[in-house]
Amino acid sequence: MTAIKTTVRIKRAPAERRAQFLDCAQALFFTRGYDAATVNDIIERAGLSKGAFYHYFDSKEALLDALTERVAAQIVADAEAVLEDPALDALSRLNAFLEQGRQWKIERAPALKSAYTAVLRADNVMLNQRLIDATARVVLPVLTDIVREGVREGLFHPPSPEMVAEILLQMSHARMSVAVEAMARAAAGDLDGAVALLESRLADESAVVERLLGVAPGSVRLVEPGFLRAMLAALS
Amino acid sequence: MTAIKTTVRIKRAPAERRAQFLDCAQALFFTRGYDAATVNDIIERAGLSKGAFYHYFDSKEALLDALTERVAAQIVADAEAVLEDPALDALSRLNAFLEQGRQWKIERAPALKSAYTAVLRADNVMLNQRLIDATARVVLPVLTDIVREGVREGLFHPPSPEMVAEILLQMSHARMSVAVEAMARAAAGDLDGAVALLESRLADESAVVERLLGVAPGSVRLVEPGFLRAMLAALS
DNA sequence: CCCTAGTAGACCGACGGTCGGTCTGCTATC
DNA sequence: GATAGCAGACCGACCGTCGGTCTACTAGGG
Questions:
Q1: Alpha-carbon distance B163 to A230, whole Å?
Q2: Which of residues 39-78 of A touch B (CB under 8 A)?
Q3: How far apart are CA B78 and CA B74, in angstroms?
Q4: Using H for helix, E for strand and C for coil, what is the string for B77-130?
C-alpha cells in the first residue's frame, strides 16, 4: 500500500546516541527555548526519528532532566581539583572556586550571551528552574562545606554557614539578569556603562559576602580587574 | 443538524466577569497547577464559554499575568497603612511589615498548604516564577526604601541597601520549601520536629538579616513566639 | 571455519488524543 | 436594527504511542 521507505540506518553506541540527542536539545533549548523547541525539531536536527527519541528518553521533560544533570555534573568535574586540594585554606578555596567559575565563563563566552538571554525569557522558566535546581544540588553542598571549613579554621564567622552558602548561590543566579542588562548596554555601544553596572553589582555582592563571613573587605574575589571589560567586549 | 442549545444568558459587569475567571483560575492553578489546569477546566468551572474567556483575556498566559498582578496588588494594599505611617522608624516599620506578612498567612491559612505545595511542584514552575516576579516588583522597592530609610536614620549599616533587600526577599521565597517540609512533618504527627525545623530556619534568617543590617541580635522579628506552632497545628 | 537461522534491541514514522486558540454567528439589550 | 457580549464547533500543533522494520550479533550445524 503505502510505499515502504527504506532509509539508511546507522547504528551507534547507545551512549553516543543519547549524547547526540542531548547536544541537539541543548543547542535548541538555549536558543529557541524549552517550550518552543519541539521534539520534532530535536529529532530533525539529530537526523533521527521519534521512535529513537522515545527509545532513549521517557519524555521531553526527562530529556531536560538528563540535560541539566549533565551540565551540573560538568561543573563539579571542572572544580574537583580545587575542591580536593588539601593545601588550601577555606578562603583560598572559595576564591579558587570563584576563579574557576570565571574561567568557565571565559571558555564558553560565545555561547553565554544567547544562553543567558534564552534562559531568562519569560516563556523559558522551566529550563532556568531546572538548571538552577540541578546546579544547586551539587554546588550548595560544596559551598556549605567550604564555609564550615572556614569556621573550623577560625577564618569565617558566619551567623549560619548554610544560609550564607545559600545566599552566595542565590546572588549568583540573580546576577544573571544584571549580566543580561549589562550585555545589552555593551551591545548598544556603552561598554563603560556596562562594566560599571556589573562591577558595582559584584562589589555589592562581595561586601555582602564579606560581612556575612566576617572577613576583611577585599578578601573575597568575586571580580578580577579587567575580567568584566574583556568579557563584555568579547560578547558584543 | 445538531440541536441548537439556547442557554440562559446572564449579563454582568465586565469587571465582575473578569474577576470570576480569575477566581476560578486561581482555585485551579493553586490545586492542579498551571499546566494541568486547562482553559476548558476554567470555563467549565466558571460556567462560561471559550468565547467569553478569549473575550476577556488574550491568552491563558495573559490570564496568569492578570492573576499574579492581582495578588501582588493585594499585598501592597494590605501593607499600605504600615508603609505610610510616619511615626515609625525603619526598624519598627520593617518589623511591622513582617508582622503584616504573618497576619496575612494566618488569614489565609486554609489555602496556604495546598498553595505552597502546588506552587513548588516541579511541573508548576511557571506559576511560581510569575508570582515571585510580580511580588518582587512591588515588594522589593518597598523593602529597599525601608532599608535606605534606616541608613538615613543611622539605625542600619548595610554593605548595600539594595542587596540586603533582595536577600531578604529571596530568603522568604526559599523558605517556602522549608515550610512545605515542615508541614509534611507536622502532618506526619511530628509537630515538635516541624516547629523546630522552621524555627531554626527563621533564627538563621534573622541572624543573617541582623548581621547585614548591622543591628543588635533580636532586633528583627521574623518569628513570633507561638506563631509557628499555632500555624503548623492548624494546617495538619 | 564458514554459513545461516534466530534474537535483541535500535530505530522508524503514521497515528491518536489533548489543548490552546480562532472564527462564525446567535442573542439579549439599548 | 445595531452592536457588544457571548456560545461552541472547529483548527492546527504538539507530545507521546504503537506496530513494525532493520541491523548486528550469537549459536549451532555442516
A1: 25
A2: 61
A3: 6
A4: HHHHHHHHCCCCCHHHHHHHHHHHHHHHHHHCHHHHHHHHHHHHCHHHHHHHHH
Q: Which residue is nearest to nucleotide C23 (CA to C1')?
A: B51
Q: d(Cα B204, Cα A172) in Å, to the nearest integer?
A: 20
> Which cell numbers hold the place of A78?
571542572
Estimate to the nearest angstrom the gap between the alpha carbon of A207 and the chain centroid.
Answer: 23
pLDDT digits (tens, 9 = 90+) for A28-70: 999 999 999 999 999 999 999 999 999 999 999 999 999 999 9
The mean predicted confidence, pLDDT, of chain A is 91
Asked if B178 is an interface residue toward chain A (Cβ–Cβ < 8 A), one would say no
A3 touches strand C (CB under 7 A): no
Contact assessment for residue A159 and residue B211, using Cβ atoms and an 8 Å cutoff: yes
CATH of A71-234, one of 1.10.3470, 2.40.360, 2.60.40, 1.10.357: 1.10.357
The pLDDT tens digits of the residues spanning B89-131 come to 999 999 999 999 999 999 888 888 888 988 899 889 999 999 9
Q: Which residues contact B60 (CB under 8 A, 6 or more apart)?
A: B39
Q: What is the mean pLDDT of residues A155-169?
A: 98
Distance CA B228, CA A204 (A): 33
For residues A106 and B12, give the distance between their C-alpha atoms in angstroms, rounded to a whole number: 59
Least-confidence region, from A98-112, B30-44, B157-171: A98-112
Q: Are A71 and A134 a contacting pair, CB within 8 Å?
A: yes
Q: Pick from A126, A201, A211 the residue to mutate for testing the B interface (most B CBs within 10 Å).
A: A211
Q: Which fold has domain B14-57?
A: Arc Repressor Mutant, subunit A (1.10.10)
Interface of A with B in 113-132 (CB under 8 A): 123, 125-126, 128-129
Residue A12, pLDDT score: 55
From B208, B193, B206, select the one nearest B95 (Cα to Cα): B206
Contact B127, B64 (CB under 8 A): yes
Type of residue found at B122: A
Q: Where are the domains of chain A?
A: 14-57, 71-234
CATH number of B76-234: 1.10.357
Distance B7 CA to D5 C1' (A): 14
Question: Dmax of chain A from CA atoms?
Answer: 80
pLDDT at B235: 84
Task: For residue range B44-70, list pLDDT tens digits in order.
Answer: 999 999 999 999 999 999 999 999 999
The C-alpha atoms of residue B233 and residue B236 are separated, in whole angstroms, by 6
